[in-house]
Amino acid sequence: MALNLLKQVDGDDWKQQHNSAQYLHTLIEVLRLAFLDTRWFVTDPAFEHVPVAELLSDEYAKARIALVHPDKVLIPFGLAAVDPKRGSPVLSSGTVSFQVVDGAGNAVSMVNSNYAGFGTGLIPQGVGFTLQNRGANFSLQHGHPNVFTPGKRPYHTIIPALALYSDSQLLHSTFTVMGGFMQPQGHVQVLLNQLLFHMDPQAALDVPRFCIGTSEGDFSYVYVEPGVDEAVVEALRLKGHAIRVLDATQVSTVGRGQIITKNPRNGVLCAGSDGRGDGLPMGW
């Protein structure tokens, strides 16, 4: 949804400079709008009608992006007019993943997640794994599309990703950014790093990122890495964002990612693995 909203932004000024105040402001606002909608509409389609076509339509995106102001936040300090928590992620936790592309061109993006550490802490008898607790992302609000119901799948952020070229449908990349509700935020950032700023996979992962934090009472902070210019941080604060700059021990807040790209002309693969984690790229 966030990428579809960005398609509707007027002009190109916002994307002229990577991690400028205007660039980050636009992404933060668009991601908040996407969270506002997904926290309500994303649920198990076997139990509820999810208006996917309408949510991804250009008409809906144009109406939503019209809410974004270039010089001030839509929702002061993350406050949403109806639900203060809907403009930021729900409770967040961790994930692991890997990416593989073989010599025949088959690509796999794999994500595994217990969600909170050891998940539920429940171990089925005779096996060596714990059961996940993704049910933590259900709503207990009566009438909510994502309300807890037996047998129902919850809203979650397990997002293994493949990107294809729109004209040829050939593989552009397989990628993910682990880290709970950082996943969709990280996906937008590393993909734009490649498409708008022509970074290779490693560079796209290495540059500083931001993360809209989980709800804390009536608002949520935006966390940015130390590599974001101090003048940019102050400019974002002047626009109304509640910014916290992370220190070197907190970089996992912005997730850990892997990317493999494939050149459509010669088939050359290029891989990158995030230095914030413990992975590495390997050839075969």
From TrEMBL:
This protein's source sits in the domain of life called: Eukaryota
What is the name of this protein?
A: Gamma-glutamyltransferase, variant
From what organism does this protein derive?
Aphanomyces astaci (Crayfish plague agent)
